Amino acid sequence: MESIICNSCFEVYDEAYYLSPCGDTICKKCLSPNISTLVSSIGVVNSCGSGSTIDYCNQIVCKICDKKVTNYYINKEIQILLDSLKIKSCSKHHRKETQFYCLDCKATCCSNCKSDKIHKSHQISDYNLILFNSIYYNIEKHIMNKNKNSNNNSNNSNKSFTQLSNSINFNSTKNNVSIKFKDQRVRLHHTFFNNCKEIIQNVNVIKNKIKDLIPKNGVHCKRTFYLKSIELNKNSSISYFNLAITLIDSTEQSITLLDGSILKEDDLYLRSLSIDPNNPFCYFNLAIGLGSPSSSSSSLSIIPTVATTTTTTTTTTTNNQQIIENGASPPIIAVPQTENELHTSVLLPNGKKVNKVGLLIKAIEVDSNYSYAYYNLGKCLKTSSVVFSNSTIMKKKDLFIKYISFHPNHAFAYNNLAINIKPEETVTLLNSGKIMTQSELYKKAIDLNPMYSNPYINLASIICEPVKLLSGQIISKKELLVKAIDIDSLNANAYNNLATNIEKDEIITLANGKQVNKKYLYLKSIDCNPNNANAYNNLALFLKTNEDKIQLLNGIWLDKKSLYIRSLAIEPLNNLMAYNNLANCLKPNEKIQLLNGNWIDKKTLYIKSISIDPSIPRIYINLAKNMNFIEKIQLEDSTKLSKKDVLIKIVDFEPNQWIHYYNLANALKLNESVKLQSMPLVPKISKKELYLKALDLNPDSDARLYNVLAGIIKTNETVKLLNDRVVYTKKDLFLKSIQLEKDNPNTYLNLSLILLHNESVTMLNELSNLDGNCVEQKQQQQPTKSNSNGIGELKLSKKELLIKTIQLDPSNSKAYINLADEIDSTEIITIRKEDKQLVPFTKIDLYVFSIHVFAKNAVAYYNLALNLPTYKQSITLLNGKIMTTRQLLIKSISINNKFSDAYHLLAKILDHDEQIQILIRNCNSKPPVGTLESFGKKDLLIKAIKLNPDPNYFYTLGNYFKNESIMVNCNLSEMYVKYNGIKMRPRDIFIQSFTRIPPFLLLQTIDNPFHYLNDVMAIEIDYSKRQPTIDKFLNLIDINPNNANHYFTLGYYLATKESIQLLNGFQMCKVSLFVKAIELDPNHIQSYFSLYLYLHLTRDPDVTYVTLSNGEIMCKEDIVRRIESMDKRLTDLMFSVSTNTTNGNNSGSIGIGGGGGITTNSLNNLSTTNSTTNITNNGSPSCSSISSTFPAS
Fold it and tell me: Where is the B box-type domain (predicted)?
């Protein structure tokens, strides 16, 4: 192999020339007549081959023998050998380079060929080692032939040896090929050959020292030479570098120097940099060592990275990333095996800590023409650009453009440049100035290396129509991927992307003739690369349920969840699709264990997806579905979000989707408003405005919008849609909802709740769509009006709307209750069932059927108990259970322990000293836990008052104390009860009842005003013993004729026109007794009030005043002013709005009895306020959501 080294300059031939007549062979550079002879006394004779003659014009002298050259030829034999040794792509393994030389076959080969059967037993040498041996072979030969002074001293010999070791030039013959794992080239600028004569004079001493160092068989001899060089010269920067190079192909982790120091590969590079900080190769190799698992790994080619891009699929979101639950995952772009995360760094001799990117930047700053550093910097750069120390900014694409200027025929570089630009973007190459698009760059890469599969895959990812390659071939998207598989049958990305671009049931034929489908391609992708995360994700989409399984090509069976879990084990950081779709497979509170042993729940999986890409609304939608209104979740950036916040984000992401406004409005309270980023000009938007915005985006496609909007507005309120000039009332909105969705029972129910008793509404519907017995009865009674378009106008009453609701939804418990409240106790209605049979119902039957369809309906039990003829009567339910009134009320309370009316009615039917036990359920515990609590009559009344301070409850409680005072014979004024921590006496209780009744209704709602007045004044009167009481007070007046209360009480028991003779013989009527009480006590307010009632209730038009004993004449107004002077509070309550009574404002009022009554207006407000609840909670009525008129008990 020595013949490839020039015998004059000891460098590898660029062109070898045979000289005549001396017969020496030298290189083209040494042939130049302008260069003086370097070594005049060194000569070696090489065998020369025949070659073509080259004429010469100048006198040429052989630089080896100093003889005149008369002729010279190109030495073809050596030239052929040089061409064979050039490192290039292996003809058999196209992605490998010929880095080795087979001495037996005299041919170059790659690392794969080295292990083939052909070269297995042959002697294989490293190409650089061959050059090393050739150089030192020639040096030894020349030095031995020209030895003239063998007696030089040892010191001069050591100095010369050091110069020798520092002056060797190892230039690679590789000009335009891809990059080595670590750069093994060295650039020396020493002047060994200028000192060659001095070396030759000391040749004998040098020969003895170099004899044992001449490489004979491998790297250890080369390493020994470098070790000796370091021993002789501690500041030999290049020796440290070359010594580090010997560890690249070795399994050793470190080297022991001759002084005993143990240094690793990186330590040797750092030693070299401490001596010469301007060696770019040290920075480069240190950077490559940081990016690899081990610095001593075997030599391999640096493969360009390919950035992952996505293609348009059936469903896409922002940034072309597809993550919809049931969509196909984006195709994988061909990416060679990536390096480890660049989290390590190295401490340079100057004290700076630098990572891989910093080392590559330093290599470029030291040598701006170091092409491989540009390439690898672009490969490992995670950001879009890099800043050099001189403030120069280079983008990722600029780094590859710079590299292409050095290597314009490198296919990998064009491929990497293409994936770092956008499809519509163009770049300008530095050398040629050519402007190229992304597609053209991929085509160029294919043209330079047709057996490189990655450009085919990447080009397929950006095209939709067939393209024309530079070779003239027209090829489609699928054909590109089939070609990639043909080039590399183990390319998992090609199989995955081809599967992504075909239909589910499509069959495609590969280049080898094999027919495959979509599922097989995903399976093959996993088989080629078990670490292909996207292939697992896409394969999981073939499974319909979580229980279905699929068999991989290696025989393993996996279900849907297992496929996503495997995908997450492979790619746990950026695997958005796996996190989202695995969460969709889980139940609301289900947890699943990942392969790393961690347990994770559904919400956390969605949060992981959001942390990867926080701009995909579908994930927020899935998360919101699994949240309640009170909880808050914390994202990985520590942001806390409630369900309302999540819904606001969804609206801001997709402001043109009506359903998002609808969902957000449903999450708000009635008077709540929010700020939307998508509406910067609107300060805040309310619940009603959100519904209106949804209707603006979707005016005629969803009845729910009209339904919920009607549910939140007041009865007399109107709204105007944003895109419509029509003004809608509450009733109109429900009618519009029915027009869009004719079979929604909740809409009919809500419409019925806003109608008054016996009120009707006009329906605009096609006659064919109106069915049911209520419509049939209407048509029989009166003909239906219709217009020219065949649209019928039909009036339906409140009762008929409720019947329609039951026909559409026979399990709607609310409809039965409200229909029962609408009819009389003796009325019978008929409802057509699903079998078209008419079934009769009474009021009691409707309540019973309401309980049958929904057994936890507390209101149904209460109303049923309220409408039984007597409290002692029982009723048989449809399940066969017999229940009394008391049991019905107890059941109602056990279902809803906040049902105040049930407590009040149960208290009224209990005996005075009776105790009952009720199962009270704690609804806040999960599951609800019930405890038995004991209640008496007073306990039930106090419980009812705490839940709802209704005046009837206070009045009933006051009567309870009156009865108890009689039974136990105690003073009523000394009795009390604690209410909200305050002691309340019977008088205070009656006053509470008094103050809670509207003043203008007082006189109409009290059966016996005198009785009520005495209750307020806490006067103990037993009305069941009238005559004994009259006799008693006659005797008391006779004994004490100056007690005003005796006269008043006696007058109280007399009829209006009745008179009585006192024991002293005086005859007195009812009015004279009250006047006598006032004479004895001028501040006797009960007597004044009794006189007022006498004048107010008398039917004699002539009686308009009374005369007191002092002659004072008083009309009703005078009496009121007198009472006001004594007790203004009582006057305000009794007389301040009495004028309203005469104005007729009490129309529509309902009497207040034991069961509790409400006005018609308040009844309507009650039903409309809860109409939204009626829509969303079908079959689950609450006490407040049902309009019921309870008769007085």
Answer: 85-127
